[in-house]
Amino acid sequence: MSTDPCVDDYIAGLPDWQQHICCEVRRLVHEADPGVEETIKFTNRPYFVLDGNICALLGTKDHVNVFLYDKAIVPDPENIITSGHANKTARMISVYRDQPINGPALVEMFRRIIANNRRRRSVGPRR
Question: What are the tens digits of pLDDT across the range 38-51?
Fold first, then answer.
């Protein structure tokens, strides 16, 4: 797993319980594909990318948002998405303190987002 020290710094600045959530999501996105890269966008937000955005993290007052950049096409059979169902670019999973993360469902979603990113990249822009 290749990590970005700026993402480390972002996570280290969060309360302990949010650090735990962010580290778990980070581990899961890298489990989905070892080629995932980390970066910081919009000044301080951790993004995970591979042939396009996969997800981003944002610690808030009482939860952590995991933004899924799936263009609302990746199935959610486990109903882990909490908002943005009609959003055309990203949906969101809000994870609260002491709330378990459905790791297998999230890894599957990450894998599908990555597959869609690769498919779009191989087709290229439409003319």
Answer: 999 999 999 999 99
Look-up: residue for tokens 């909490």? Answer: 82
3-state secondary structure of 74: coil
pLDDT at 123 over 80: no
Alpha-carbon dihedral angle through residues 71, 74, 76, 80, given to the nearest 10 degrees: -50
Give CA–CA dist 71/5, Å, rounded: 29
Spacing of C-alpha 51 from chain mean position: 14
Planar angle of CA 51, 78, 39, nearest 5 degrees:
30
Quick one: which H or E segment has residue 16?
helix 16-32
> Where do the domains of the chain lie?
5-123
pLDDT at 125: 59
Domain spanning 5-123, CATH class: alpha beta
In this structure, are residues 14 and 22 in contact, taking their beta carbons and an 8 Å threshold? yes
Which residue has 């808030």 as its token pair? 60
